[in-house]
Write a structure and sequence with these properties.
- The complex is a heterotrimer.
- By secondary structure, chain B is mainly α.
- Chain B has 15 helices and no strands.
- Chain B has two domains: 91 residues, no CATH class; 233 residues, MetI-like fold.
- The radius of gyration of chain B is 28 Å and the shape is globular.
- Classes of the chains: A mainly alpha, B mainly alpha, C alpha/beta.
- Chains in contact: A-B, A-C, B-C.
- Chains A and B meet through helix 1, helix 2, helix 5, helix 6 and helix 7 of A and helix 1, helix 2, helix 4, helix 5 and helix 6 of B.
Chain lengths: 321, 350, 449
C-alpha cells in the first residue's frame, strides 16, 4: 500500500474530502468482513476433515457411539486404527508399504504420459494451421463426458482379447503377468485423462500472445522448437495444475485400479487395500478413518510442493496484456 | 515392519520401463519432428542452390508441412482416444438400442423406459438440479475465497485448507459427510455434527438424508465442498497472473476493491472461469460415488451416473444403462455449443 | 524418492535384484517338484484324485476379504502343497459389479464364489460359465442336500457346488438380560409378539433393526420379508414368488409385508437405541444389534454371520452376553422353515486343474479343513460338528442338518438382480420410510420384466 497520494487522483479527492475518511473506514471494514468471510469458509471447509482426523485416534467402541467432539471432554486416545491400517491383520494382503509402492508406480507414468501427449496435442490444436482443427478440438473436448464406467469393458477386452476385425488379428492380446499389469493401468489412465488435459492445456496455450509465436516463426523456428523453448516454459503453471489434478485423480482412483490392476498385492494400489480394510461385512469401518489419513498424506505433499512452483510460474508467465 | 525390498524390485523395474518408454516416445517424437524438417530444409536449400545455378524458377515452399506437424503432435492423443473413449462411446450408443443382455435389438425401448418410469424421470430431474447448483456454488465460493486470501498472510496454509477435500477421494468425502449427517434418536447422544448443533440450539434431531428434496441439497453440499478447492486453485492462479501494472494503475486511479473485482479481476480471469465452470459441470454430470456411498440413490436422491452404474453393472441391464449414458452425452451438448461459440470468438479476437 | 535421485545406483540395484529374482524363479520351479514328492505321503492321501496338475495356477475371485480371506487361503494350503496346483484368491468389495465387467471384457477369473443364484443364471444364459465336470457333480450330489443344488442348476445344467452357508432365521438377544428380567425365549410367533409387548410395557423398545448397508441398503429388510413369507405361506408359494409365478403384489406377499410391519413399522417396538421407525433406514446393519449390549433393545433379527459384528469382548454363547434363537414359526406344525444363503463355486474355465479345484471345494475334506480354522458354516453333510467351535456356527450347522428343517435360499438373491438387488431393496427402504405396502409392491412388480 502506497501512502503518497497519486497525482492522478488528487483532483477527485480535493473535490470531496469527506469521502476519503469514509472510504478509508469502509475499506477497513471491508477488509475485516473479508477476513471474517475467509475464516468462516476455511473453518466450515476444515471441520468435517478435522472431525475425521480426531475420530481416527478414537477407540472403536467410542467412535461408534459418541460424537468426535466429545474427545475434548473425554480424551481417549489410541493408535490402534493406524496400527491396523499400517501393519494389517491379514496375512494374505501384505504390508501397506507394498501398496504405497504400487500407488507410486501407477501414478507417476499415469501423470507423465497424458501430460506430454496432451501438451503436444493442445499446441497443435492451438497454433498449427490444418483443416478441421477446431472440430477435432471440440470432439476431444466432448469426449470428457464419456463415463469411465462405459469404457471399462471395451478397454479390458482390448487388453485381453486384442483387436480382431473379421477374423483378422490386427493387434494381439497383451497377455500380461504380475507387475506387467501396470502397463494396462497406465494406458487406461492416460486414455481417460486426455480429454480434460487437452481442454485445460489448450486453454492456456491458445492464449499465449500471437506476436510471440509469429516472431518465432519469422526467426525460422520450427514447431517442435517453439513448443520446447517457448510454449513449455510459459505454460509451466498449467502443466503443474494438470499434474496436481491428474495425480489426485489417479491416486484416489478405485474403479480403474480394480479392473486393470486387480486386487493382488503385486499391482493393487492403496485405494484397493483401503477399500478392503473395512472387512467382508464392513464391520471394521473405524479403520477407514485412519486409512483416509494415510492416503491423504502424499497428495497433500504433492500439492504443497507444487503450489509454490505453480504460483511463481504463473507470475513469470504473465506476458499477456 | 518387515518390508521386503526384493518384492518391490519387479515393480520398480516396471516403473523404470514405463519412464524409459515415456522418454523414448516423447523424446523420440520431438527428435523426429526436429530432424525431419531440418532434413527437408537442407534439401530445399540444395534445391535452391541448384535452382539458382540452373536459372530455373524457385520451388515454392511446400504447404503440407503444417499438416505433417499436426499429425505427429496429435497422433498419440488421437490414437489413445480412439481406443479408450471413441470406441466405447460408439459401443455404448449401439448397446442402448439393445436389450439387457446385449443380444437383441429393441429399438427405442430403453429410451421409452427412461421417460416412462417415474423413478428414472426423478433421476433425470435430480441430475439437472445438480448440474445447475454445483458449478455455481463451487465456483462462487472458490472465487470469493481466492480473492479474499490473495496476498493475505498465511495464504499457502489458507489455500491448503480448502484444497484438502480435493485430496480426499470421493468415497472418503462421502464417508466424512455421512458422519456429519448421522442421526440418533432424541433420547440418544448425537454422533452427527449437524444434529448435535441442532440439538444444542434446542431443536429436534432430524434424519437429514431421508427427506426429499432437502437430501439432494445436502448431497450437493458434499460435491461443492470437494470442487470449491479445484475452483479456488485455478482461479487463484488466474488472479495472480493478472499483470501487476494493470492492478497498480487501477489502484492509483482510486478504484474501490468492489470495482476492482468487477472491472479488472473478472474480465482478466474470464477464460479461467470458463474452464472451471465447464470442468465442474462435467464432473457433476458424471458424479456417482457420492450418491452411491451416502444414500445409494434411495429417498429420491439418485442421479444419472449412479443409476447407469446400477443398471449396467449391478442389474445386468446393459441396454438401459447405456441409454442413460447416451442421455448424459446429450446433456453435455449445450456445454459443447457454448465451447464452440467461445472458440469462434477467440479466433475472431486473435 | 531418494532412489531416483541417483539413477545409476538405482539401476544397479534394480538390475541386481532382477538377477536374484530370476534365480528365485527357478527355485520356485524346483520347490514345485518337491511338492510333488510330498504327494505320496500319508497326509496327501485324500488329495490323490486331484493329482496330475502340478505347477498349474487357478485364480479365484470372490467378495471375501481380510481375515476371512486368510482363512480360506489356509484352508486349501495342504491341497496346494500336495497337488502342486497354486490357488490364487482375490477378494473385492466390488465383486458383484466387477465380475460381469471382467467376464464381458474377456478377463474372467477361473473360479468365482457367487452368492446370488440370480447372477449364476445370468452368466449361464450368456454362455459365460462352464458346466461343472462329472466329478464335481458327483461330489456335490454326495455331499449336499438337493435343496441346495437346484440353486446352481440352470436349464438342467449343474454349474457348481455350494461352499459356505449361513442361516438367516435367527433373532439375536442377550441371555443375561432375558434371565435378569425373567423373559423366556419364544418358540412361536405369538409368544414372540407377547414378549415384545411385555418388553415394550417395561419401557424398553423390544426390537432394533438397521438396513443401511452402502450400495446394498435395504437387504436386511428383504430378509425379514422372506423369513415372514416362509412362515405365512408354504415353501411352494415362496418358490412361486421368487420365480415370479405369482406377481410381486400378490395379496399373499402383501400379507407378509404387513405382518413384518407389525414389528418393523410399530413405533412401540422399534427402534431401540436409535430412534423411531424411520431410523431403521439409516442405521447401518453392522450397528443395528449393538444396543442389545447396552440394554437399549432386546431383540434383533439377523443372520448367523452377525456374530462377527458385536463389539470386541462380547461373548457369543448360549450363556454369554449375546446369543440367537431360531426365528419362530407361526404354525410349528408346518415344520421349521429356514431361510439361508451361501456362495457357489462357479467356473469360467474348464481346464482340468480348475475342475480339480472345483471338485475339491465341494468335498468334505475342504469343508472340515475350513471349519477347523474357525467361524464357518456349511451345508456340506460331511462337515463334522466337532470341527465347528463357535456356538452360533454349531447351532447353524445343527439347523441345516436337521431333517425337519425346510430350507429356502434368500429370495432376493434368486430374483433377477434388477429386482432382487434393485427394486426390492429400494422398495423396502421406501416402505420403512413410510410408503404404504400396496404402492411399494406395485412398484417392484412393474420393474420385474
Amino acid at each position: 500500500m502506497t501512502t503518497t497520494t497519486p497525482p492522478a487522483a488528487v483532483g477527485a479527492q480535493q473535490t470531496d474530502g469527506g469521502t476519503t475518511r469514509a472510504s478509508r473506514v469502509r475499506k477497513r471494514l471491508n477488509s475485516r468482513t473479508a477476513t471474517l468471510v475467509a475464516i468462516v469458509i476455511a473453518v466450515v471447509w476444515t471441520i468435517p476433515t478435522f472431525g475425521l482426523f480426531v475420530s481416527s485416534f478414537r477407540p472403536e467402541p467410542l467412535l461408534k457411539t459418541t460424537g468426535w467432539w466429545t474427545f475434548f471432554q473425554d480424551p481417549q486416545f489410541t493408535l490402534k486404527n493406524y496400527q491396523d491400517v499400517l501393519f494389517g491383520q491379514s496375512a494374505s494382503s501384505g504390508q501397506l508399504a507394498n501398496y504405497f509402492v504400487n500407488s507410486l508406480v501407477i501414478t507417476l507414468p499415469s501423470v507423465l504420459f497424458p501430460l506430454a501427449f496432451a501438451a503436444l496435442a493442445a499446441y497443435a490444436l492451438a497454433w498449427i494451421n490444418f483443416r478441421g482443427r477446431d472440430w477435432l478440438y471440440i470432439a476431444i473436448f466432448a469426449l470428457q463426458i464419456v463415463p469411465l464406467q462405459m469404457a471399462l469393458v471395451p478397454l479390458l477386452s482390448f487388453f485381453s482379447r486384442g483387436v480382431n476385425l473379421g477374423g483378422v488379428t490386427l493387434l494381439p492380446a497383451w497377455n500380461l503377468d504380475g507387475a506387467q499389469n501396470f502397463a494396462q493401468v497406465w494406458f487406461a489412465h492416460t486414455c481417460f485423462a486426455l480429454p480434460f488435459a487437452v481442454f485445460l492445456l489448450h486453454n492456456f496455450i491458445s492464449q499465449l500472445p500471437k506476436d510471440l509465436m509469429e516472431a518465432a516463426r519469422v526467426d525460422g523456428a520450427t514447431h517442435p522448437k517453439i513448443f520446447r523453448t517457448i510454449v513449455l516454459p510459459l505454460v509451466a503453471p498449467a502443466l503443474a495444475a494438470f499434474a496436481i489434478f491428474q495425480f489426485l485423480w489417479v491416486w484416489n482412483d478405485l474403479l480403474v485400479a480394480l479392473i486393470f490392476a486387480g486386487g493382488s498385492d503385486v499391482t493393487a494400489p492403496l485405494t484397493v487395500r483401503l477399500a478392503e480394510l473395512a472387512g467382508t461385512r464392513g464391520n471394521e469401518w473405524q479403520r477407514l478413518t485412519a486409512g483416509a489419513f494415510v492416503s491423504i498424506v502424499v497428495p497433500l505433499i504433492v500439492f504443497l510442493s507444487l503450489q509454490r512452483y505453480f504460483v511463481r510460474g504463473l507470475l513469470a508467465g504473465s506476458v499477456k496484456g | 515392519m518387515n518390508f521386503d525390498f526384493a518384492d518391490q524390485a519387479p515393480k520398480l523395474m516396471m516403473l523404470l520401463w514405463g519412464l524409459v518408454a515415456f522418454a523414448v516416445v516423447v523424446g523420440g517424437l520431438l527428435f523426429v519432428l526436429d530432424a525431419v524438417p531440418s532434413f527437408f530444409a537442407r534439401r530445399r536449400e540444395a534445391q535452391l542452390v541448384a535452382a539458382s545455378a540452373s536459372g530455373a524458377p524457385l520451388p515454392r515452399r511446400p504447404k503440407q508441412r503444417e499438416g505433417f506437424f499436426a499429425l505427429f503432435f496429435l497422433m498419440p492423443t488421437v490414437l489413445l482416444l480412439l481406443i479408450g473413449l471413441v470406441v466405447p462411446a460408439i459401443r455404448t450408443t449401439l448397446l442402448s438400442f439393445m436389450d439387457g443382455s446385449s443380444q437383441n435389438w429393441v429399438g427405442l425401448d430403453n429410451y421409452r423406459w427412461m421417460f416412462a418410469e417415474d423413478a428414472i424421470v426423478r433421476v433425470l430431474l435430480n441430475t439437472l438440479v445438480w448440474v445447475t447448483l454445483v458449478p455455481l456454488a463451487a465456483t462462487a465460493i472458490g472465487l470469493i475465497y481466492a480473492v479474499l486470501v490473495d496476498k493475505a498472510r498465511l495464504e499457502a496454509v489458507a489455500k491448503s485448507l480448502i484444497f484438502m477435500p480435493m485430496a480426499i477421494s470421493f468415497v472418503g468425502a462421502a464417508i466424512i459427510w455421512r458422519f456429519v449427517y448421522a442421526y440418533r434418536g432424541e433420547d440418544q447422544e448425537q454422533i452427527g455434527l449437524l444434529n448435535q448443533i441442532v440439538v444444542s440450539l434446542g431443536g429436534e434431531p432430524r434424519q437429514w438424508l431421508l427427506d426429499s428434496p432437502l437430501n439432494t441439497l445436502l448431497l450437493i453440499v458434499i460435491m461443492v465442498w470437494i470442487q470449491a478447492g479445484f475452483a479456488m486453485v485455478v482461479l487463484s492462479a488466474a488472479i495472480k497472473s493478472i499483470p501487476a501494472d494493470i492492478v497498480e494503475a487501477a489502484r492509483l486511479d482510486g478504484v474501490s476493491p468492489w470495482q476492482m473485482f468487477w472491472q479488472i479481476t473478472m474480465p482478466s480471469i474470464r477464460p479461467a472461469l470458463i474452464v472451471v465452470v465447464v470442468t465442474i459441470s462435467i464432473a457433476t454430470l458424471k458424479v456417482f460415488d457420492i450418491v452411491r456411498t451416502t444414500t445409494n440413490g434411495n429417498y429420491d436422491t439418485s442421479v444419472i451416473a449412479n443409476e447407469m452404474y446400477n443398471q449396467a453393472f449391478r442389474y445386468g441391464q446393459n441396454g438401459q444403462g447405456s441409454a442413460l449414458a447416451v442421455f448424459l452425452f446429450v446433456l453435455v451438448v449445450p456445454i459443447v455449443i457454448f465451447q464452440i461459440r467461445n472458440l469462434r470468438q477467440q479466433r475472431r479476437e486473435g | 524418492m531418494a532412489i531416483f535421485a541417483r539413477p545409476r545406483q538405482a539401476l544397479a540395484i534394480v538390475g541386481a535384484v532382477g538377477l536374484a529374482l530370476s534365480a528365485t524363479a527357478c527355485g520356485t520351479g524346483s520347490s514345485n517338484d518337491s511338492g510333488n514328492n510330498n504327494a505320496d505321503s500319508a497326509e496327501c492321501a485324500p488329495y490323490e484324485k486331484y493329482q496330475g496338475h502340478s505347477g498349474k495356477k487357478v485364480s479365484i475371485y470372490s467378495s471375501i476379504r481380510e481375515i476371512e480371506a486368510d482363512r480360506l487361503d489356509e484352508s486349501w494350503k495342504q491341497f496346494e502343497e500336495c497337488t502342486g496346483i497354486s490357488v490364487d484368491h482375490e477378494g473385492s468389495g466390488e465383486f458383484e459389479a466387477q465380475l460381469p465387467v471382467r467376464a464381458d471384457g474377456g478377463n474372467a477369473p477361473d473360479i468365482a464364489f457367487i452368492p446370488q443364484p440370480g447372477l449364476i443364471e445370468r452368466f449361464a444364459e450368456r454362455g459365460q460359465i462352464k458346466a461343472a465336470s462329472a466329478d464335481t457333480k458327483a461330489m456335490a450330489e454326495q455331499n449336499y442336500p438337493a435343496d441346495w443344488l437346484k440353486y446352481s442348476t440352470v436349464g438342467g445344467t449343474f454349474y457348481g457346488a455350494p461352499l459356505g452357508s449361513n442361516v438367516k432365521s435367527f433373532v439375536w438377544y442377550s441371555p443375561k438380560m432375558f434371565q435378569e428380567k425373567g423373559w423366556t425365549v419364544p418358540t412361536t410367533w405369538d409368544e414372540m409378539i407377547k414378549l415384545s409387548d411385555t418388553i415394550a410395557d417395561s419401557g424398553t423398545k423390544p426390537w432394533c433393526a438397521g438396513i443401511e448397508s452402502g450400495e446394498a441398503t435395504g437387504w436386511p429388510a428383504t430378509d425379514w420379508i422372506e423369513d415372514v413369507m416362509l412362515r405365512t405361506q408354504t415353501p411352494e408359494v415362496y418358490d412361486q414368488w421368487t420365480t415370479h409365478e405369482i406377481p410381486f403384489n400378490d395379496p399373499r406377499v402383501a400379507e407378509a409385508l404387513d405382518r413384518a410391519g407389525t414389528i418393523l413399522k410399530n413405533e412401540k417396538y422399534v427402534n431401540g437405541g436409535f430412534g423411531g421407525v424411520r431410523s431403521i433406514a439409516t442405521t447401518a446393519f453392522q450397528e443395528a444389534g449393538v444396543p442389545i449390549t447396552a440394554g437399549k433393545c432386546a431383540m434383533h433379527r439377523q443372520a448367523s454371520f452377525y456374530a462377527n459384528q458385536w463389539p470386541q469382548g462380547t461373548r457369543v454363547a448360549e450363556d454369554g452376553d449375546v446369543f440367537a434363537f431360531y426365528f419362530p414359526a407361526i404354525d410349528p406344525a408346518r415344520g421349521k422353515p429356514v431361510l439361508g444363503g451361501g456362495e457357489f463355486v462357479v467356473a469360467f474355465a474348464d481346464r482340468p486343474e480348475v475342475q480339480a479345484v472345483q471338485t475339491y471345494l465341494a468335498s468334505g475334506e475342504h469343508a472340515n479343513s475350513r471349519a477347523k480354522i474357525g467361524d464357518w458354516v456349511s451345508a456340506n453333510n460331511k462337515l463334522d460338528l466337532a470341527n465347528v467351535s463357535n456356538p452360533i456356527d454349531k447351532l447353524s450347522v445343527e439347523i441345516l442338518q436337521d431333517d425337519s428343517s425346510v430350507f429356502r435360499f434368500d429370495g432376493s438373491d434368486l430374483m433377477p438382480a434388477a429386482v432382487g438387488q434393485g427394486t426390492f431393496w429400494k422398495g423396502m427402504v421406501d416402505w420403512i420410510n413410510g410408503r404404504d405396502t400396496a404402492t411399494v409392491l406395485q412398484g417392484i412388480e412393474s420393474s420385474w420384466k
